[in-house]
């Protein structure tokens, strides 16, 4: 038995034992793609009967860390729209790119089709206000990056991290692509724009390894040029209680 077959078997046992009422289940993440490492957790989506409620749980099963995405089957369309609005679509991707563990009534097949349509459609476009706020925030962090002396390494590293995150959000939005956090940020960034994404990531690495902010600052300026340029004076925002 291969390692992936063992993982699939383990995921199936978990669903049968802990969720006997389940209407279907999928295995997502690196385990579904055969890329799991010894430290990888199992991402499992479970469809539950109507009115069962939706949520997220983390547990250990047979010594393995498991992250469960639980969805009331009738709540799936609304939940997927909420997930899409975040522009990361974490659970949507679990279904769109995962592996079916059980589907006795066809609910998983239907949910997967919906997820695939959402992935193909892409994330929602940013509003005019969101673009202006993004330009302003990245401009502020870029100014801080340039002004922070390399001797202040803690400050420099934190600012560089914010520059990369804000720039990645704007690049993926500009390309109409999905964004991500954690290890998915570089993956989604490179997918959205290989050249500019690599420049941002290499620039971030230059700050970390050489205390040199110049490459990251240059890449961030290119991002701003794509979306209307830096924004400082003239920006305004009204607080909403």
List keywords for this structure.
five-stranded mixed sheet, Beta Polymerase, domain 2, 241 residues, alpha+beta, elongated, 13% strand
Secondary structure topology:
Elements: H1 3-18, E1 24-28, H2 29-32, E2 42-48, E3 55-61, E4 64-72, H3 76-85, H4 90-97, E5 99-102, H5 107-121, H6 128-147, H7 153-174, H8 184-192, H9 194-210, H10 214-226
Parallel strand pairs: 2-4
Antiparallel strand pairs: 1-2, 1-5, 3-4
Helix pairs in contact: 3-5, 4-5, 6-7, 6-10, 7-8, 7-9, 7-10, 8-9, 9-10
Structural summary, described in words:
It contains ten helices and five strands, in the order αβαβββααβαααααα. With about 240 residues, it is α+β, with helices and mostly antiparallel strands. The chain has a five-stranded mixed β-sheet, with helices on both faces. The longest helix is centred in the C-terminal third of the chain and has 22 residues, at about 155-175. It is elongated, with a radius of gyration of 21 Å. The mean pLDDT is about 95.
Average the pLDDT over all residues and give the rounded result. 95
Shape: elongated
- Largest sheet data: 5 strands, mixed
**How much helix is in the residues?**
55-70%
Element-level helix/strand string = HEHEEEHHEHHHHHH
Name the CATH architecture of the largest domain.
Answer: 2-Layer Sandwich
Distance between the termini: 58 Å
Number of strands: 5
In the CATH hierarchy, the third-tier topology of the largest domain is known as Beta Polymerase, domain 2
Strand order in the largest sheet = 3-4-2-1-5
Tally of discrete structural domains: 2
What percent of residues are in strands? 5-15%
């Amino acid at each position: 038995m291969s390692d992936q077959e063992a993982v699939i078997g383990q995921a199936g046992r978990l669903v049968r034992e802990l969720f006997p009422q389940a209407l279907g289940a999928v295995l997502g993440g690196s385990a579904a793609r055969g890329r799991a490492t010894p430290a990888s957790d199992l991402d499992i989506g479970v469809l539950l009967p109507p009115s069962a409620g939706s949520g997220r749980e983390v547990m250990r099963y047979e010594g393995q860390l498991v992250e469960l995405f639980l969805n009331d089957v009738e709540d799936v369309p609304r939940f997927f729209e909420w997930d899409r609005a975040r522009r990361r679509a974490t659970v949507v991707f679990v279904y769109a790119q995962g592996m079916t563990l059980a589907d006795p009534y066809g609910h998983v097949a239907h949910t997967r089709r919906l997820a695939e349509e959402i992935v193909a459609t892409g994330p929602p476009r940013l509003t005019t206000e969101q673009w202006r706020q993004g330009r302003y925030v990245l401009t502020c962090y870029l100014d801080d990056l340039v002004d922070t002396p390399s001797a202040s390494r803690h400050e420099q590293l934190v600012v560089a991290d914010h520059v990369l995150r804000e720039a990645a959000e704007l690049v993926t939005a500009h390309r109409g692509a999905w964004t991500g956090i954690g290890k998915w940020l570089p993956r989604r960034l490179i997918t959205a724009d290989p050249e500019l994404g690599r420049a941002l990531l290499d620039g971030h690495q230059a700050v970390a390894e050489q205390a040199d902010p110049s490459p990251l600052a240059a890449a961030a300026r290119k991002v701003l040029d794509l979306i209307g340029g830096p924004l400082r004076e003239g920006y305004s925002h009204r607080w909403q209680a």
